[in-house]
Design a protein that fits this description.
- GO terms for molecular function: acyltransferase activity.
- Keywords: Transferase.
- It comes from Nothobranchius kuhntae (Beira killifish).
- This is Ketosynthase family 3 (KS3) domain-containing protein.
- The chain has 68 residues and is mostly loops.
- The protein has two helices and no strands.
- The longest helix is centred in the middle third of the chain and has 6 residues, at 30-35.
Length: 68
């Protein structure tokens, strides 16, 4: 963007603004969080993984061609 800011929902959008960021999620067993009187923002009830099964890449690296 010439202005250096992103405007994803604006008719005046003219590119993107570069930036860096970081996020972190700390997980703790629910029983321990309750015992420690932590604020509980959410509970993970289920998980899943995705792997196309057609490549030798690790399960943590899905195949780009199979995702299209």
């Amino acid at each position: 963007s010439a202005e250096g800011t992103s405007k994803p929902f604006s008719t005046r959008a003219d590119g993107y603004g570069r930036g860096e960021g970081c996020g972190i999620v700390l997980l703790k067993p629910l029983r321990q969080a309750v015992k420690d009187c932590n604020k509980i923002w959410g509970v993970i009830c289920k998980t899943a993984v995705n792997q196309d099964g057609r490549s030798v890449t690790p399960i943590t690296k899905p195949s780009v061609s199979q995702q299209e």
